[in-house]
Amino acid sequence: YNLVTGLGSVDANKLALAWAASRAATSVTLTPSSTQVYQSANVTLTAVVTPSTAKGGVTFSNGSTNLGTAGVSGGTAVLTTTALPVATNSITASYNGSGALANSTSPAVTVTVSQAFTLAPTAPTFEVTQGSSVDATVTVTFVSPFSGTVNFTCSEPSTMTASTCTVPPAINA
């Protein structure tokens, strides 16, 4: 830097370090709506960012899998998901920081997702010739202590324009 002319070059590394050091510290606390759920159940993840004036976003992750990002309002970010697999899941919330506030990540919380039921068809595939039909029996076995309703749906591949799918009514465990 030349004191007389005021010309020089910026040391980008020193500037970045000084800017990062000037950002205020933050912290994130993560609370799940439940720590034990059955597959496909909603889990609401609530992240509280301190200070409560934080703006920006919080990214929710299951290990290295991104579950989604939610905006921070009043220091709180909320994400509802059904994307947790049957397993013991380790969930974190990471505040992405802002110009004045530093990044931070919550301690991991555990959400255990259990299998609610199993499905067992009488055969792995069913061959149907054009113009005929087939009855496919699928046995539903509930895993104790699951209590709830299982709804059956049928979707048809776009290449199967002439097929018809009929499902049984919902059943309760």
Key words describing this protein structure:
mainly beta, 6-stranded mixed beta sheet, 3-stranded antiparallel beta sheet, 173 residues, 1 helix
Shape estimate:
elongated
Proportion in helices = under 10%
| Rg over C-alpha atoms, rounded to the nearest angstrom | 26 Å
Average pLDDT rating: 85
First-to-last CA distance = 76 Å
User: Order of SSEs, N→C?
Assistant: HEEEEEEEEEEEEE
Strand content: 35-45%
Folded structure, characterized:
It is a single chain. The protein has 173 residues and is mostly beta strands. 6% of the residues lie in helices and 39% in strands. The protein contains 1 helix and 13 strands; from the N terminus they run H-E-E-E-E-E-E-E-E-E-E-E-E-E. The protein has one helix at 12-22; strands at residues 27-32, 36-38, 43-50, 57-62, 65-71, 76-81, 87-95, 104-105, 109-114, 117-121, 138-142, 149-150, 171-172. Strands 2, 4, 5, 7, 8 and 9 form a 6-stranded mixed beta sheet that branches. The chain has a 3-stranded antiparallel beta sheet with strand order 1-3-6, with no helix packed on it. The longest helix has 11 residues, at 12-22. The N and C termini lie far apart (76 Å). The mean pLDDT is 85.
